[in-house]
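<instruction>
Derive structure tokens from the sequence
<entry> Chain with its tokenised backbone below:
===
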Amino acid sequence: MDISRRAIEILTSVDLIAAEDTRVSQKLLSNIGLKKRIIAHHRFNEQGSSQGIISLLKEGKSVALVSDSGTPCLSDPGALLVSEARKAKINVLAIPGPSALTAALSVCGFYSKHMNFNGFLPSRGAARKMIIAQAARQSGLQVFFEAPHRLQTTVKDLMEVFGTDRPVAVCKELTKLFERTIESTLGNFYELIDKAKFDMRGEFVIVVKGLAIEPDSGDAEVKKVLKVLLEELALKDAVRIAVQLTGKSRKLVYGRALEIREK
């Protein structure tokens, strides 16, 4: 269990705790010998819960916000509550603690001055394809969170756009008992999964290495983006989004889109 002395001091001093899962947080409090009132604050009740917590804060109560694992507001509930607290002129303090994002960056073995955090991808559709297509064009590290039941599908989708040879570090169960990090290529890692040589249990962070050089200014970039978008979108919509992603002229993008569609 990773928890700082300051975090324990805060949990000890507050009037109540807002938790993503009260059962998980109760185990945490039991481990550090605390008994506190815990209220549920998760993605299914976030709107109403936020207003209730703001009311308590206005009454002078102090509230600590915790998530099941990792850090609130990073693919976990909390952003709405913090926003409402700011609007109400309520002071919000950050209590640094375990974060799968920063933990993965520290052990992946890739160096870059730039990083793009994509969180959990949409499960399907044009939005998913667009995010992957845009990420593949970046020179910085591309970080994704993923659940075990979707890991194979996501690695396959990334491989089809980034390429089989793109370096990747897959971090499993960071800071937990069965922590493991595999540095490979997307193609080789997918093969491990496909041949059942990788334990799929746990929570995962996927760190894909960015492009070694900036994308060229030719047609290759436009065609690559269009091929992905045209699988899901009408020609007009694919062209509009491709223009936004690549920065190329609409005339050029439209011409390449027609060529791809005809083929």
In short: The CA atoms of residues 19 and 66 lie 5 Å apart. Residues 100-208 form a domain with the Methyltransferase, Cobalt-precorrin-4 Transmethylase; Domain 2 fold (CATH 3.30.950.10). The first strand starts at residue 16 and ends at 19. The mean pLDDT is 92.
